[in-house]
């Protein structure tokens, strides 16, 4: 599939790491899954304000999306972060999906929740799916009352580690979504390697996403253009269904 025709996914890295590090983390997943998507890995808005847990494992620079207190109830530079990401998505998108690890997963839920409530991204098409790895909810009531006001009705898959210190918060975040798919793994706070069962689950989930996107695009295309264009598009779509 050509690069410019692949489904575009914005990938948000964890606290005090980088887009390059998340790309390396995701690279352990089966290539048959990744090759279906164009994945974009921006760096966080702010340089890391302290020690990174990946020092000595992966080279700097390191970044963070926003800052927070120990209780995770007070946030610094969050508004700037949200504005930056919304501008980035409009200028570099549109993006069909979001993927995030840890702080990035927490952020992606806020973005889709805020978009559903009409608070952000009014000039960007609705996000259609998310992949959340070790995320959690914000605790500030002013954020919760908007982000999780209603079940978030985008397709979602949530990776939750049995040894992750955010296991329970990750389960709570998954519960904020409508009919989430939960994929559990035996590891800690990390992007896990996928066993055969997980690869099958994620492959089937992503195939359903792509089919939904394809069926949404074709009627839109058929509503415009001359009759010969419509016939060509319809024939191509039918052929794809047969040969897929």
Automatic annotation (TrEMBL):
Gene3D superfamilies reported in the protein's UniProt record? alpha/beta hydrolase
Among the Pfam families in the record, one is: FSH1
MF-aspect GO terms: hydrolase activity
Q: Which residues are in the Serine hydrolase domain?
A: 5-197
Gene Ontology, cellular component aspect: cytoplasm; nucleus
Indicate what this protein is called per its UniProt record. Answer: Serine hydrolase domain-containing protein
Which organism was this protein described from?
Zea mays
